[in-house]
Amino acid sequence: MTGQSTFDIIVIGAGIAGSGVAAELAEQAKVLMLEMESQPGYHTTGRSAAVYSQAYGSEPIRALTRASETFFKSPPEGFCDHPLLSERKAMLIANKDQMTWLEGVYSLLKDEGSVRILSAAEVREMNPLVREDYVAGGLIDTASADIDVHGLHHGYLRQFKDRNGTLVCKAEVTALTRENGIWQVATSAGDFCAPIVVNAAGAWADQLGQMAGAEPIRLKPLRRTALMVAAPEDMDVEDFAMAVDIDEQFYLKPDAGKLLISPANEDWDVPSDVQPDEMDVALCIHRIEQAFDLSVRRVENSWAGLRNFVADKSPVAGYSQVVDRFYWLAGQGGYGIQSAPALSRFAAADVLKRDIPQDILDAGFDPETVSPARLSRPKTQKGTPQVSVEKIGPDLALPDGTPLPFAAATRAEGFIFVSGQLGVTPEFKCIEGIEAQTKLCIAHIKRILNAAGAELTDVTKVTVWLTGYEEFAAFNEAFGEAFEGHLPARSTVISPLVLPDALVEIEAVARDPRN
């Protein structure tokens, strides 16, 4: 295609994000979708091992996933020739050292309704490959399912075509400028223009934003490696549950009679056609053989893909705060497939400035949680950053409903401040032993930091209160194990604590990865 062609909207990127929103927009506008590769979905979408789980991802992702359920179970007529979902239980598994963290994750997800705790025996019943001497328990999402990624993606592409959308491949964007209220998009396949540009360029989204003069969203492309290996001889694994390490150190998923395995790595990389690293392959095999009764003799296939996140691991969907009519649709991370139907509908309505579909709002989705504005610090009229304090997490209350007059954590001036944590269950009961309480305190801190888009490795300083000197040695050992070699600065004080059975309280300060 040569010369300049005019459209209402140009969507850049034809992966699941671009194709989904383009198909929705094409029902009401003249839409062009540009793809730099020779075929849509070559990068992240085409390399995804997607599972539908309402318990997977950040709060905005889980809400969008809930809102996508109806689409997955009953896609529009003509969208696909076969069901998009097939039965597949998915479970998180833990060894004895991870059980405290698993219980903390359960306390966060139990309101989803489809999540329940598993005993070690139940884990092995659902996936007999899990080693008996490895597993101590698990957590299962009974509503999970496999997603036909190819069927979903090609359904959107078919829908886009049926709605008279125009797809141009081998169209790498080389220049992006705005003149007289119109975006001029120069590509290797010709020049195009439209009043609105939707940036669904995946790992390249920040680069495209820079080209347009938009604010950076600080997207992190993170490489993940996956391998396909043979199942044990004479064993039918097709009905086995997918097993994911509670700390995301590995996963194993049956796939057409074989086993899809991964070290669940998230290694920073540059936007590119990423390939599996030999060290990642070796690490994957080592971790899998430790947790599963499986000997990997040959890797039948291996590949890598980029999972693209911003700091809080929620998508970015909204108009730029800096340039006009430039819409961000990026940062879906590893959740872009399961949330695609609802996110595509939301983004299309948002692009066209229409009302957000009520069913998406009813699923608990808050548009502010994906707005690019959340990633920018407020400015004074003189341009000096204001000191703003953001509360992290829901309002706190005692088990009887009595509200607590403080936040679990706050974010301010480039840091995250986590309130003192005790080794207590959701019922506010202390678990027994200094080692167990220490690990649970740190599990609570990790959960709070994760909700803020941070990790334990971002912690810079902790303050510890112990009830007695005799607890120090056991506490110190558990503390070192929990931080896995990343040792922050620390102060330790001997003091009585609020709860009579509490032996330790830990508060933390972490750097804010968004800054």
UniProtKB/TrEMBL annotation:
Pfam families: DAO, Ribonuc_L-PSP. InterPro entries: FAD-dep_OxRdtase, FAD/NAD-bd_sf, RutC-like_sf, YjgF/YER057c/UK114. GO terms for molecular function: oxidoreductase activity. Residues 8-348 form the FAD dependent oxidoreductase domain. One of its GO terms (cellular component) is cytoplasm. Keywords: Oxidoreductase. The keyword Oxidoreductase applies. Residues 367-388 are annotated as: Disordered. The keyword Ribosomal protein does not apply. This is Glycine/D-amino acid oxidase. The lineage of its organism: Bacteria, Pseudomonadati, Pseudomonadota, Alphaproteobacteria, Rhodobacterales.
